[in-house]
Amino acid sequence: MKKQVEQKIKNIRSNWHVWLFPIFAILISGWLVFDHFNQGGPTIKIFFDDASGIQAEKTRVRYRGVPIGTVKKISLTKDTKDAIVYIKLTSDAENFAVAGSKFWMVMPKVSAAGISGLETIFDGTYIAVEPGNPEGKTKLEFKGQLSPESNDSLENTSVYFIETSNAESISPGDSVTFRGIKVGSISKVALSKTAQVAVIQIDVQNKYVNLIRTNSVFWRKAGIKADLGLFNSEIKVNSFDSIMHGGIEFFTPNNPGAVAKAQSRYPLHGEAPKDSGKWNPQLEL
């Protein structure tokens, strides 16, 4: 028995070099794992109304064209109203995870200002960012915006729903206006659960929500309107933006109802009511 033990010890000593490779492999693997987590920055969550074009492990977050993070996972919120995009920032991008930072998707777009996002045709959609205050509080959850021009984050808006039998010429990003002034944007267009109507989600800046009353009327914003009467022919051309994109206009009658609650629903009319030109309600902001 003693000889067997001595022989095993002798075999181990003579073959000790065989164990070097697996030991080194374990050490190197451990170092790579440690380096990966040590070098990476924080993981943030961005809530988008629609995550079309975003892909896990492919879509990048860029600032001034420089990649500062990668999308790791995409999921839905429990109420399925938003898509959650999980992003791992690089170690030198920690100062983007602060209050005030703005994130938005960049994709090909034709607007009154021109054509933008052409680089995404080859590289795919990416998420752009505008940094907040470097000395601000750390923040790991953000609401994605529609564009960098948005002065008000979608966190400072209220949602309403407009229903129509045909959503042709209505697209996310189109403006919602009151007296020709932009007060919000269209954020989503989808079919209802029964597919009987199209539901348009609009995000109105909170400073303008008092304009939306229970009897407010919403209609398509026409770029060109023609009234070809026999003696009183008239052609009205609105802004170039409305010609390119359309959008939604709304107004309120002279006897305004109560301020509408967020999530309220309204029908979408094809044009403004005939007597809307005489409406001039007093609405306090």
Describe it.
- The protein is α/β, with parallel strands linked by helices and 285 residues long.
- 15% of the residues lie in helices and 37% in strands.
- It has two domains: 40-143, no CATH class; 154-278, no CATH class.
- The radius of gyration is 28 Å and the shape is elongated.
- It has four helices and 18 strands.
- It has a seven-stranded mixed β-sheet. Strands 10-13-12-11-17-14-18 form a seven-stranded mixed β-barrel. It has a two-stranded antiparallel sheet with strand order 6-7.
- Mean pLDDT is 79; it is low at 111-115 and 235-244.
Number of helices: 4
**Termini separation (Å)?**
96 Å
What fraction of residues sit in β-strands?
Answer: 35-45%
For the CA atoms, what is the radius of gyration? Answer: 28 Å
Instruction: Tell me the strand order in the biggest sheet.
Output: 5-8-2-3-4-1-9
